[in-house]
Amino acid sequence: MPPVLTFIVRRTLWTVLVMFVITVVVFFIFFKTPGVDPARALAGRNPSPQTLAEVRAQLGLNRPLWIQYGIMMKRIFITRNLASYSDQGELIVPEIFAAAPATLSLVFGAAVIWIIVAIVMGVAAARLRGTIYDPILMILALIGVSAPVFWLGQVCNYITQGGLHSTFVFSWVPPLGYTSFTVSPLKWFEGLVFPWITLSILYIGFYARVLRANLLETQSEDYVRTARAKGLSERRVLVRHTLRTSMITFVSLFGLDFGALVGGGAILTEVVFGIHGVGFLTWEALQNLDLPTIMAVVIYGAFFIVLMNALVDIGYAWLDPRVRPA
Amino acid sequence: MPDPLLEIRDLKVTFRTDDGLVRAVDGVSATLYPGETLGIVGESGSGKSVTMMSVMRLITDPNAQFEGEVIYKGTNLMGMSQDQIRSIRGAGIGMIFQDPMTSLNPVYKVGWQIEEQIREHEKVSRQAARDRVVELLSSVGIPNARERADAYPHQFSGGMRQRVMIAMAVSCNPDVLIADEPTTALDVTIQAQILSLIKKLREDFGTAVVLITHDMGVVADMADRIAVMYAGRIVEQGTQRDLFYDPQHPYTWGLLGSIARLDRPRPRRLAAIPGLPPSLMRLPEGCAFGDRCAHRFDRCAELPQLLDRVGNGHLDACHLSRQDKQDLRDRTVHPELVEERP
């Protein structure tokens, strides 16, 4: 087998193992926290004795531990019929899958914005070092990192939905909520513009600062001097030599942040803008103490983070030949 | 004498720092003729690398200030625009750096890195550039050049990487090759191989070489003419023969005296020059070497000029009379001989 394939297979097996460990840990937290009756916890607020008995029977709570774990995993991954007791028996897994496109649309668009703007800002700041523009850009980035999403989102809504909505600048902004791309691509786009901007601002600030620091460090590397001594243009030195090696950190950070956001981390943005995605679902479940839903979302979120981690490792090997398997 | 290829005229490089101005290079002048090898010798911090980096305009520090002229084939490099100097870097003047472990970009294949330089300067097809890369790599002694061109720098040893750097530096047939301590980071057996490789390329292509080193042994082996630098200035300059057999400056004597020699009785301990080089921020008024010089006298409080005091083009910056120099130097250069005398 070629070494690259071995690497990918090994990485995948490792991913599966990590996933298994996560499900075990989550199961123990929800079912075996000392002093908590899992049936009561899972059954929602003020359950009737019938509901409790039903939960016990459905989840096999009087059977051995490993069977309880097996039943739970079967209901999440195989039969996908784990139901929420506080939400009129709504099936949880289909609900998550139905919410995922909204979250993916939000996170994907925001990611495109934050990558492009962060690269432009980071490169500009590094190139303009020693001028007044570098500190100005970095202070802007710091403000971006410091502005809380829920506040930024509300201000955004206040402007686009409230006071200035009647002016021609913002009259095109649709009311809060998410329109599926398949229903109307234009409405999908219009409804997501401000959520994208709001979500990306924090990451723009953070990534621009990280990239600037990396660029400045790489600029003093001997191989950048070699590239200049070869007679390459400043532009080529920057893009092909300095930026290329600086992107290694950038890419690893991106994988992790992207995974966490798709896994429900965009909860504040989704709630502020009324986008019914995975984060919104989590928020509702938290309000109703809907533990089965929370458990399923946690596992779903962990799944994305682990998956992105694996992709980052593979992407890392693509970016940096030194970590490639020999 | 043919026209000089590269001429440095009164080059001064000053860095602004938080603690004041640092003059790293103070009025260096040197000339390189076609096909010859000029050795620049000096301790760390004597300004030899800064001089050659300034020639290539590779110092990007915004706090650096430059004065003087660098004439390459009749044009002043110091007055050129970035685009003009780029067409000379890598094409007319090639450069090899000290540390081959960090001088190649770790994320690109070595063949690609050489190809990049060729294609920057010449309009050639990828395939033609590729063939030239393979040819270059085998001419610098890399076995299986065609396959090795597709390897990454970390898959090479230090000596092999320096060979790749040399192949890169000569890839566009430069007239001048600047080698900045090309063997310092390598172990001794590899050093000899790299030096003989540079010698061979010099003979094959007629390239003029500027060899920067702190190793007197290396210049003895390689250089036609030698300039000795101390604290940002040239203190002695002459042919290799003059410098080794008739050295004029006490600093040169010190350097020669500190070499372990196989052809002389072994001294009890190797001689060293006492003290440390002065801080470039607080250079003494007169001769910069004065504080460390065993032969200091009152005139040394006045800065000595680099002049031809011998009368054959051999320059030095020392106030001692020619006779004094002849009397004093044997004791410094050959301490073991002095020791043995009754």
Report the mean per-residue pLDDT of chain B as an integer.
Answer: 88
Radius of gyration of chain A: 24 Å
Order of helices and strands of chain B: EEEHEEHEHHHHEHEHEEHHEEHH
Strand order of the largest sheet of chain B: 6-7-8-3-9-10-12-11
Q: What's the SSE pattern of chain A?
A: HHHHHHHHHHHHH
Number of strands of chain A: 0
Distance between the termini of chain B: 48 Å
What's the β-strand tally of chain B? 12
Radius of gyration of chain B: 21 Å
**Oligomeric state of shown chains:** heterodimer
Which secondary-structure class do the elements of chain B indicate? alpha/beta
Class by helix and strand content of chain A?
mainly alpha
Can you walk through the features of this model?
The complex is a heterodimer of chains A (326) and B (342). With 326 residues, chain A is an all-alpha fold. Chain A contains 13 helices and no strands. Chain A is globular. The two termini of chain A are 13 Å apart. Chain B is built from 12 helices and 12 strands. In chain B, strand 4 and strand 5 (75-76) form a beta hairpin. In chain B, helix 3 crosses helix 4, helix 4 (126-139) crosses helix 6 and helix 10 (250-257) runs parallel beside helix 11 (322-333). The mean pLDDT of chain B is 88. Chain A binds chain B through residues 130, 219, 221-223, 225-234, 236, 240-241, 244-245, 319-322, and chain B through 56, 58, 60, 62, 82-83, 86-91, 94-95, 97, 99, 102-107, 116-117, 120-121, 152, 154, 165, 168.
Could you give a short description of this structure?
The complex is a heterodimer of chains A (326) and B (342). Chain A has 326 residues and is mainly alpha-helical.
Features:
heterodimer, A: about 325 residues, mainly alpha, about 75% helix, about 0% strand, globular, B: about 350 residues, alpha/beta, eight-stranded mixed beta sheet, four-stranded antiparallel beta sheet, about 35% helix, about 20% strand
